[in-house]
TrEMBL record:
Membrane recorded as keyword: yes
PANTHER family, A to Z: FOSMIDOMYCIN RESISTANCE PROTEIN
PROSITE patterns: MFS
GO cellular component, one term: plasma membrane
Lineage of source species: Bacteria, Bacillati, Bacillota, Bacilli, Bacillales
UniProt domain Major facilitator superfamily (MFS) profile: residue ranges: 1-63
An example Gene Ontology molecular-function term: transmembrane transporter activity
Protein name: Fosmidomycin resistance protein
Alphabetical keyword list: Membrane, Transmembrane, Transmembrane helix, Transport
Topological type in the membrane: Multi-pass membrane protein
Span of the signal peptide: none
Amino acid sequence: MFPKNIGLVSGLMVGFGIGAGGIGATLIGWLSDQYGIYTIFGLFGILPMLAAVLTLFLPSERSLIAKEA
């Protein structure tokens, strides 16, 4: 998207990652206070498994290449 601004894009990605990490840690801490640490750890253990199942519904590379041709 920005072939001439690789440094800008890299900086934005790092900044967003650090910012999201700070907000996420605060949110998880608040949720842990509200619902208990074991509940939140259980929830955040299930979410990656759900994401893995959802990846099964992504189109394959072959089908994307066939559509382009």
